[in-house]
Protein backbone atom coordinates (compact mmCIF):
# COMPACT_ATOMS: atom_id res chain seq x y z
CA UNK A 1 0.00 0.00 0.00
CA UNK A 2 2.79 2.39 0.93
CA UNK A 3 4.64 1.61 -2.27
CA UNK A 4 1.46 2.44 -4.19
CA UNK A 5 1.12 5.77 -2.37
CA UNK A 6 4.68 6.68 -3.38
CA UNK A 7 3.78 6.27 -7.05
CA UNK A 8 3.75 9.66 -8.80
CA UNK A 9 0.53 8.97 -10.73
CA UNK A 10 -1.32 7.84 -7.59
CA UNK A 11 -0.13 10.91 -5.69
CA UNK A 12 -1.31 13.18 -8.53
CA UNK A 13 -4.73 11.50 -8.51
CA UNK A 14 -5.11 11.78 -4.73
CA UNK A 15 -3.96 15.41 -4.69
CA UNK A 16 -6.41 16.30 -7.47
CA UNK A 17 -9.30 14.55 -5.70
CA UNK A 18 -8.49 16.42 -2.48
CA UNK A 19 -8.57 19.72 -4.42
CA UNK A 20 -11.94 18.83 -5.95
CA UNK A 21 -13.51 17.80 -2.65
CA UNK A 22 -12.18 20.89 -0.86
CA UNK A 23 -13.43 23.11 -3.67
CA UNK A 24 -16.92 21.60 -3.55
CA UNK A 25 -16.99 21.84 0.25
CA UNK A 26 -15.97 25.52 0.24
CA UNK A 27 -18.54 26.15 -2.50
CA UNK A 28 -21.18 24.52 -0.31
CA UNK A 29 -20.20 26.81 2.60
CA UNK A 30 -20.60 29.83 0.29
CA UNK A 31 -24.05 28.58 -0.75
CA UNK A 32 -24.99 28.23 2.92
CA UNK A 33 -24.12 31.88 3.53
CA UNK A 34 -26.14 33.02 0.49
CA UNK A 35 -29.23 30.91 1.18
CA UNK A 36 -28.98 27.88 3.49
CA UNK A 37 -32.40 26.53 2.47
CA UNK A 38 -31.33 25.21 -0.92
CA UNK A 39 -27.56 24.84 -0.47
CA UNK A 40 -27.49 21.03 -0.42
CA UNK A 41 -29.71 20.68 -3.48
CA UNK A 42 -27.77 23.38 -5.34
CA UNK A 43 -24.35 21.79 -4.90
CA UNK A 44 -25.85 18.42 -5.85
CA UNK A 45 -27.36 19.89 -9.04
CA UNK A 46 -24.00 21.37 -10.01
CA UNK A 47 -22.26 18.02 -9.58
CA UNK A 48 -25.02 16.10 -11.39
CA UNK A 49 -25.11 18.45 -14.41
CA UNK A 50 -26.75 16.49 -17.27
CA UNK A 51 -27.94 13.80 -14.85
CA UNK A 52 -30.53 16.33 -13.67
CA UNK A 53 -32.57 15.32 -16.73
CA UNK A 54 -34.81 12.28 -16.37
CA UNK A 55 -34.88 11.08 -19.98
CA UNK A 56 -31.76 9.21 -21.26
CA UNK A 57 -32.03 11.08 -24.58
CA UNK A 58 -31.78 14.44 -22.81
CA UNK A 59 -28.90 13.18 -20.66
CA UNK A 60 -26.95 12.11 -23.74
CA UNK A 61 -27.67 15.38 -25.52
CA UNK A 62 -26.36 17.55 -22.68
CA UNK A 63 -23.50 15.15 -22.00
CA UNK A 64 -22.57 15.91 -25.60
CA UNK A 65 -22.74 19.64 -24.87
CA UNK A 66 -20.22 19.18 -22.06
CA UNK A 67 -17.93 17.22 -24.39
CA UNK A 68 -18.17 19.96 -27.04
CA UNK A 69 -16.64 22.46 -24.62
CA UNK A 70 -14.24 19.94 -23.10
CA UNK A 71 -12.39 19.45 -26.42
CA UNK A 72 -11.12 23.07 -26.76
CA UNK A 73 -10.43 23.25 -23.02
CA UNK A 74 -8.31 20.11 -23.30
CA UNK A 75 -6.31 21.64 -26.16
CA UNK A 76 -5.62 24.75 -24.09
CA UNK A 77 -4.60 22.56 -21.15
CA UNK A 78 -2.23 20.58 -23.36
CA UNK A 79 -0.75 23.83 -24.62
CA UNK A 80 0.03 24.96 -21.08
CA UNK A 81 1.30 21.50 -20.11
CA UNK A 82 3.61 21.18 -23.13
CA UNK A 83 5.29 24.50 -22.36
CA UNK A 84 5.43 23.84 -18.62
CA UNK A 85 7.25 20.55 -19.16
CA UNK A 86 9.96 22.58 -20.90
CA UNK A 87 10.17 25.07 -18.05
CA UNK A 88 7.96 27.75 -19.64
CA UNK A 89 4.68 29.19 -18.36
CA UNK A 90 2.46 29.74 -21.39
CA UNK A 91 0.00 32.23 -19.96
CA UNK A 92 -0.43 33.50 -23.52
CA UNK A 93 -2.56 30.42 -24.27
CA UNK A 94 -5.69 32.60 -24.20
CA UNK A 95 -4.34 34.86 -26.95
CA UNK A 96 -3.27 31.86 -29.02
CA UNK A 97 -6.76 30.39 -28.61
CA UNK A 98 -8.26 33.70 -29.76
CA UNK A 99 -5.93 33.83 -32.77
CA UNK A 100 -6.98 30.33 -33.82
CA UNK A 101 -10.66 31.15 -33.32
CA UNK A 102 -10.36 34.32 -35.40
CA UNK A 103 -8.48 32.58 -38.20
CA UNK A 104 -10.91 29.67 -38.64
CA UNK A 105 -14.01 31.87 -38.36
CA UNK A 106 -12.80 34.43 -40.89
CA UNK A 107 -11.63 31.76 -43.33
CA UNK A 108 -15.02 30.04 -43.06
CA UNK A 109 -17.32 33.07 -43.14
CA UNK A 110 -15.41 35.44 -45.45
CA UNK A 111 -13.63 33.04 -47.81
CA UNK A 112 -15.89 29.98 -47.62
CA UNK A 113 -13.07 27.53 -46.92
CA UNK A 114 -13.82 23.92 -46.01
CA UNK A 115 -13.20 22.50 -42.54
CA UNK A 116 -9.64 21.19 -42.96
CA UNK A 117 -8.05 24.37 -44.42
CA UNK A 118 -9.85 26.40 -41.72
CA UNK A 119 -8.44 24.11 -39.05
CA UNK A 120 -4.91 24.33 -40.47
CA UNK A 121 -5.21 28.13 -40.66
CA UNK A 122 -6.20 28.21 -36.98
CA UNK A 123 -3.19 26.05 -36.08
CA UNK A 124 -0.86 28.38 -38.00
CA UNK A 125 -2.35 31.49 -36.35
CA UNK A 126 -1.88 30.05 -32.86
CA UNK A 127 1.65 28.93 -33.76
CA UNK A 128 2.55 32.45 -34.95
CA UNK A 129 1.44 33.93 -31.63
CA UNK A 130 3.48 31.28 -29.82
CA UNK A 131 6.49 31.99 -32.04
CA UNK A 132 6.43 35.68 -31.12
CA UNK A 133 6.63 34.79 -27.43
CA UNK A 134 9.38 32.24 -28.15
CA UNK A 135 11.51 34.66 -30.18
CA UNK A 136 11.24 37.36 -27.51
CA UNK A 137 12.15 34.81 -24.83
CA UNK A 138 15.11 33.34 -26.72
CA UNK A 139 16.78 36.39 -28.22
CA UNK A 140 15.61 39.33 -26.10
CA UNK A 141 15.24 37.53 -22.74
CA UNK A 142 11.68 38.85 -22.39
CA UNK A 143 9.75 36.85 -19.81
CA UNK A 144 7.14 34.70 -21.56
CA UNK A 145 4.51 35.67 -18.97
CA UNK A 146 4.79 39.39 -19.77
CA UNK A 147 4.81 38.99 -23.55
CA UNK A 148 2.05 36.37 -23.36
CA UNK A 149 -0.28 38.62 -21.35
CA UNK A 150 0.27 41.52 -23.75
CA UNK A 151 -0.48 39.31 -26.75
CA UNK A 152 -3.70 38.10 -25.11
CA UNK A 153 -5.15 41.58 -25.36
CA UNK A 154 -3.61 42.31 -28.75
CA UNK A 155 -5.20 39.10 -30.00
CA UNK A 156 -8.62 39.91 -28.52
CA UNK A 157 -8.99 43.39 -30.00
CA UNK A 158 -7.49 42.35 -33.33
CA UNK A 159 -9.97 39.48 -33.52
CA UNK A 160 -12.87 41.83 -32.73
CA UNK A 161 -11.74 44.18 -35.51
CA UNK A 162 -11.26 41.44 -38.11
CA UNK A 163 -14.41 39.48 -37.30
CA UNK A 164 -16.59 42.59 -37.39
CA UNK A 165 -16.29 42.18 -41.18
CA UNK A 166 -18.27 38.93 -40.96
CA UNK A 167 -20.71 40.18 -38.34
CA UNK A 168 -24.42 39.40 -38.59
CA UNK A 169 -26.63 42.31 -39.66
CA UNK A 170 -27.92 44.28 -36.69
CA UNK A 171 -26.16 42.10 -34.10
CA UNK A 172 -22.93 41.79 -32.16
CA UNK A 173 -22.07 38.21 -33.18
CA UNK A 174 -20.43 36.69 -36.21
CA UNK A 175 -22.70 35.06 -38.74
CA UNK A 176 -23.99 31.56 -37.98
CA UNK A 177 -21.63 28.85 -39.24
CA UNK A 178 -24.43 26.53 -40.33
CA UNK A 179 -25.91 29.15 -42.65
CA UNK A 180 -22.86 31.20 -43.76
CA UNK A 181 -19.96 28.74 -43.48
CA UNK A 182 -21.41 25.24 -43.49
CA UNK A 183 -18.46 23.80 -45.42
CA UNK A 184 -16.25 24.60 -42.42
CA UNK A 185 -18.33 22.59 -39.93
CA UNK A 186 -16.28 19.66 -38.63
CA UNK A 187 -17.38 16.14 -39.70
CA UNK A 188 -19.64 14.49 -37.15
CA UNK A 189 -18.48 10.89 -37.77
CA UNK A 190 -21.94 9.79 -36.62
CA UNK A 191 -21.44 11.26 -33.15
CA UNK A 192 -24.27 13.75 -33.70
CA UNK A 193 -26.74 10.86 -34.05
CA UNK A 194 -25.23 8.96 -31.14
CA UNK A 195 -25.65 11.90 -28.75
CA UNK A 196 -28.70 13.44 -30.40
CA UNK A 197 -26.72 16.69 -30.63
CA UNK A 198 -25.70 18.13 -34.00
CA UNK A 199 -22.75 20.01 -32.47
CA UNK A 200 -20.86 16.87 -31.36
CA UNK A 201 -18.18 16.34 -34.00
CA UNK A 202 -14.72 15.07 -34.80
CA UNK A 203 -13.40 17.56 -32.21
CA UNK A 204 -14.02 15.19 -29.28
CA UNK A 205 -12.05 12.10 -30.40
CA UNK A 206 -9.38 14.27 -32.07
CA UNK A 207 -8.63 16.14 -28.84
CA UNK A 208 -8.24 12.84 -26.95
CA UNK A 209 -5.91 11.44 -29.61
CA UNK A 210 -3.79 14.59 -29.43
CA UNK A 211 -3.51 14.27 -25.65
CA UNK A 212 -2.10 10.77 -26.15
CA UNK A 213 0.22 12.08 -28.87
CA UNK A 214 1.55 14.81 -26.57
CA UNK A 215 2.31 12.17 -23.93
CA UNK A 216 4.17 10.06 -26.50
CA UNK A 217 6.20 13.02 -27.77
CA UNK A 218 7.19 14.18 -24.30
CA UNK A 219 7.91 10.79 -22.76
CA UNK A 220 8.97 8.50 -25.61
CA UNK A 221 10.85 10.57 -28.20
CA UNK A 222 14.26 12.18 -28.55
CA UNK A 223 12.59 15.52 -29.28
CA UNK A 224 10.65 15.37 -26.02
CA UNK A 225 13.81 14.49 -24.10
CA UNK A 226 15.71 17.44 -25.60
CA UNK A 227 12.86 19.86 -24.95
CA UNK A 228 12.56 18.80 -21.31
CA UNK A 229 16.34 18.88 -20.86
CA UNK A 230 16.39 22.46 -22.12
CA UNK A 231 13.67 23.35 -19.64
CA UNK A 232 15.46 21.75 -16.70
CA UNK A 233 18.79 23.46 -17.36
CA UNK A 234 19.38 25.59 -20.45
CA UNK A 235 23.12 25.86 -19.87
CA UNK A 236 23.57 22.10 -19.43
CA UNK A 237 21.50 21.45 -22.55
CA UNK A 238 23.63 23.91 -24.51
CA UNK A 239 26.82 22.24 -23.21
CA UNK A 240 25.45 18.87 -24.36
CA UNK A 241 25.07 20.23 -27.88
CA UNK A 242 21.31 20.93 -27.82
CA UNK A 243 20.02 24.01 -29.61
CA UNK A 244 18.52 25.90 -26.65
CA UNK A 245 17.10 28.81 -28.68
CA UNK A 246 15.54 26.48 -31.23
CA UNK A 247 14.01 24.30 -28.50
CA UNK A 248 12.42 27.23 -26.68
CA UNK A 249 10.95 28.66 -29.88
CA UNK A 250 9.78 25.23 -31.06
CA UNK A 251 8.12 24.55 -27.72
CA UNK A 252 6.09 27.76 -27.80
CA UNK A 253 5.25 27.30 -31.49
CA UNK A 254 3.84 23.83 -30.75
CA UNK A 255 2.05 25.10 -27.63
CA UNK A 256 0.53 27.94 -29.65
CA UNK A 257 -0.53 25.51 -32.37
CA UNK A 258 -2.37 23.36 -29.81
CA UNK A 259 -4.20 26.40 -28.40
CA UNK A 260 -5.05 27.66 -31.90
CA UNK A 261 -6.45 24.24 -32.73
CA UNK A 262 -8.60 24.56 -29.60
CA UNK A 263 -10.29 27.60 -31.14
CA UNK A 264 -10.96 25.62 -34.30
CA UNK A 265 -12.37 22.63 -32.41
CA UNK A 266 -14.87 24.88 -30.68
CA UNK A 267 -16.06 27.40 -33.26
CA UNK A 268 -16.06 24.94 -36.17
CA UNK A 269 -18.72 22.91 -34.40
CA UNK A 270 -21.08 25.86 -34.90
CA UNK A 271 -22.10 25.68 -31.24
CA UNK A 272 -21.41 29.37 -30.54
CA UNK A 273 -20.68 32.59 -32.42
CA UNK A 274 -17.92 35.05 -31.66
CA UNK A 275 -19.03 38.26 -29.90
CA UNK A 276 -17.41 41.10 -31.85
CA UNK A 277 -17.73 43.48 -28.90
CA UNK A 278 -16.01 41.16 -26.41
CA UNK A 279 -14.06 43.13 -23.79
CA UNK A 280 -12.46 40.21 -21.96
CA UNK A 281 -10.32 37.29 -23.09
CA UNK A 282 -12.26 33.97 -23.25
CA UNK A 283 -12.04 31.90 -20.08
CA UNK A 284 -11.12 28.80 -22.09
CA UNK A 285 -7.44 29.69 -22.11
CA UNK A 286 -7.15 30.47 -18.41
CA UNK A 287 -9.24 27.44 -17.43
CA UNK A 288 -6.71 25.40 -19.39
CA UNK A 289 -4.09 26.37 -16.80
CA UNK A 290 -6.29 24.92 -14.05
CA UNK A 291 -6.97 21.73 -16.00
CA UNK A 292 -3.22 21.25 -16.47
CA UNK A 293 -2.42 21.33 -12.77
CA UNK A 294 -5.57 19.50 -11.70
CA UNK A 295 -4.54 16.75 -14.11
CA UNK A 296 -1.22 16.39 -12.29
CA UNK A 297 0.79 17.74 -15.23
CA UNK A 298 0.03 14.55 -17.14
CA UNK A 299 -1.56 14.63 -20.63
CA UNK A 300 -3.81 11.65 -19.84
CA UNK A 301 -4.85 13.10 -16.47
CA UNK A 302 -5.57 16.37 -18.23
CA UNK A 303 -8.30 14.67 -20.29
CA UNK A 304 -10.27 13.91 -17.11
CA UNK A 305 -9.54 17.21 -15.36
CA UNK A 306 -10.69 19.17 -18.44
CA UNK A 307 -13.93 17.24 -18.50
CA UNK A 308 -14.49 17.77 -14.77
CA UNK A 309 -13.93 21.54 -14.93
CA UNK A 310 -16.32 21.84 -17.86
CA UNK A 311 -18.79 19.51 -16.13
CA UNK A 312 -18.90 21.78 -13.06
CA UNK A 313 -19.15 24.90 -15.21
CA UNK A 314 -22.09 23.50 -17.17
CA UNK A 315 -23.70 22.34 -13.92
CA UNK A 316 -24.25 25.98 -12.94
CA UNK A 317 -27.10 26.18 -15.45
CA UNK A 318 -29.15 23.83 -13.24
CA UNK A 319 -29.22 26.14 -10.22
CA UNK A 320 -32.46 27.66 -8.97
CA UNK A 321 -32.05 31.22 -10.26
CA UNK A 322 -34.50 32.49 -7.66
CA UNK A 323 -32.03 31.51 -4.95
CA UNK A 324 -28.62 31.65 -6.57
CA UNK A 325 -26.76 33.23 -9.47
CA UNK A 326 -25.58 30.77 -12.16
CA UNK A 327 -22.10 32.26 -11.69
CA UNK A 328 -21.83 30.24 -8.47
CA UNK A 329 -20.51 27.32 -10.57
CA UNK A 330 -17.78 29.62 -11.88
CA UNK A 331 -17.00 30.53 -8.27
CA UNK A 332 -16.63 26.86 -7.33
CA UNK A 333 -14.48 26.26 -10.42
CA UNK A 334 -12.36 29.25 -9.41
CA UNK A 335 -11.89 27.84 -5.91
CA UNK A 336 -10.83 24.50 -7.36
CA UNK A 337 -8.51 26.36 -9.75
CA UNK A 338 -6.97 28.19 -6.79
CA UNK A 339 -6.50 24.92 -4.92
CA UNK A 340 -4.84 23.42 -8.01
CA UNK A 341 -1.82 25.49 -7.12
CA UNK A 342 -1.38 23.24 -4.09
CA UNK A 343 -1.37 19.95 -6.05
CA UNK A 344 2.42 19.83 -6.19
CA UNK A 345 2.60 20.88 -2.54
CA UNK A 346 0.22 18.06 -1.56
CA UNK A 347 2.29 15.53 -3.50
CA UNK A 348 5.43 16.78 -1.76
CA UNK A 349 3.69 16.58 1.63
CA UNK A 350 2.54 12.99 0.96
CA UNK A 351 6.04 11.94 -0.05
CA UNK A 352 7.55 13.56 3.06
CA UNK A 353 4.98 11.95 5.34
CA UNK A 354 5.67 8.47 3.90
CA UNK A 355 9.44 9.00 4.13
CA UNK A 356 9.21 10.15 7.76
CA UNK A 357 7.08 7.14 8.67
CA UNK A 358 9.51 4.75 6.99
CA UNK A 359 12.44 6.40 8.75
CA UNK A 360 10.67 6.14 12.12
CA UNK A 361 9.87 2.48 11.54
CA UNK A 362 13.46 1.80 10.52
CA UNK A 363 14.77 3.42 13.70
CA UNK A 364 12.30 1.42 15.82
CA UNK A 365 13.41 -1.76 14.08
CA UNK A 366 17.06 -0.93 14.74
CA UNK A 367 16.28 -0.17 18.40
CA UNK A 368 14.46 -3.52 18.80
CA UNK A 369 17.39 -5.33 17.21
CA UNK A 370 19.82 -3.72 19.66
CA UNK A 371 17.54 -4.55 22.58
CA UNK A 372 17.34 -8.17 21.45
CA UNK A 373 21.12 -8.46 21.27
CA UNK A 374 21.49 -6.92 24.71
CA UNK A 375 19.01 -9.43 26.18
CA UNK A 376 20.86 -12.39 24.66
CA UNK A 377 24.15 -11.17 26.09
Describe this structure as you would to a colleague.
The protein is mainly alpha-helical. It is built from 17 helices and no strands. The radius of gyration is 24 Å and the shape is globular. It starts with a helix and ends with a helix.
The outline comes out as globular
> What is the typical, i.e. mean, pLDDT?
86
Order of helices and strands: HHHHHHHHHHHHHHHHH
Major beta-sheet overview: none
Any key phrases for this structure?
377 residues, mainly alpha, 0% strand
Compact summary:
This protein is mainly alpha-helical and 377 residues long. Helices cover 74% and strands 0% of the residues. α4 packs antiparallel against α13.
What's the topology here?
Layout: H1 2-5, H2 8-34, H3 39-48, H4 56-85, H5 93-109, H6 115-140, H7 144-163, H8 177-180, H9 191-195, H10 203-220, H11 222-232, H12 234-239, H13 244-267, H14 283-294, H15 299-315, H16 328-340, H17 343-376
Helix pairs in contact: 2-3, 2-16, 2-17, 3-15, 4-10, 4-13, 4-14, 4-15, 5-6, 5-7, 5-13, 5-14, 6-7, 6-13, 10-11, 10-15, 11-13, 14-15, 14-16, 15-16
Amino acid sequence: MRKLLKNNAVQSLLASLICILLGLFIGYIVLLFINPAGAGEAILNIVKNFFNYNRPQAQFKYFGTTLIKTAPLLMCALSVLFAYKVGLFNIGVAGQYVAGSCACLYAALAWGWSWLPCMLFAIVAGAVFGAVVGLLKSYCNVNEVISGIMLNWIGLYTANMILSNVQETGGNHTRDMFSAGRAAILPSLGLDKLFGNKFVTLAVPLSILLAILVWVVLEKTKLGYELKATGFNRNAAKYAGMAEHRNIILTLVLAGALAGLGGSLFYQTGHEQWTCTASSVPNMGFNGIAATFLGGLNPIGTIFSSFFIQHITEGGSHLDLKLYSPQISSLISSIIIYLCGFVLFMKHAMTNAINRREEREYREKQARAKTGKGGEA
